[in-house]
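Sample intake — GTP cyclohydrolase 1 type 2 homolog
Collected from: Pilimelia terevasa
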Amino acid sequence: MTAASPDGRNAPGRAGSLAAVPQTSTPVAPPAVADVVAALDRRYPPRWAQEWDRVGLVLGEPAAPVRRVLCVVDCVPETVAEALAAGADLIVAHHPLLLRGVSSVAPTTYQGRIVHDLIRGGVALYVAHTNADVAAPGVSDALAARLGLRDLRPLAPAEGPAAGDGRGIGRVGRLPAPLSLRAFTAHAAARLPATSWGVRAGGDPDRVIRTVAVSGGAGDSYLAAARAAGVDAFLTADLRHHPAGAHLAAGGPALLDAAHWATERPWLDDVAAFLRDSLPVAATASDLDTDPWTLHHASTAAKENS
């Protein structure tokens, strides 16, 4: 028998003793594009998307390996360049690249140039849009969490294939403590990703805000839902002059209009975390501001007295 050390292990340097065997872990094979698509489809089933929407795998070889994923709001030349520089194998985008029909993807066209750059760089593209909007958790859950809202429920409960389990467009919640509209607007501007647009508000600046509805992305089609929910304020994006004015004149909730990109950017952190937890991939969220508005100046002209 070989000599043993006091703790019962074979003593090193003795005849017949076993040399320490280095512990090596078996390399984990990266998932394929098809595996990542399957995981995303389970979380955001394509059947939940609106009929007009275009979601799912846009381009990419299903068998290609995926080691790095970049999550973006918009698949635009700038985020494609970011993905290529980061060595990403897959982009997960919120907004569809090919929402409306095109007759050509020649590299001389805007969308065609993006398609060619992705294919040349070996980067697949996947889209989760309105199916991620209605999901629970989904786009508006991430927005509500960024604002610190509690006790969430859907603003417009989902119908059809997505119905049930708290799914729907937007979220309604309450603030931890009441704030004036002025203070809540400042809070939202501080909590949302920074943009040139910022956050603008309509309503009495001193109005007390306790309950809030939010909807990531364009939300003025949900003004009536916000009124019906009985909330004190509604935060969304892309509010138009006439609908907003009529809503406020009718005594509806105060309105906060944030940058479209800023209301959807928080969701990227959630989907990136989901991918890291579900698969052996390095998934990150892009902080590249793809909002089209790049400058904002408050009007400085003195108002005329009439």
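Post-analysis note: Residues 135-263 form a domain with the Udp-n-acetylmuramoylalanyl-d-glutamate--2,6- Diaminopimelate Ligase; Chain: A, domain 1 fold (CATH 3.40.1390.30).
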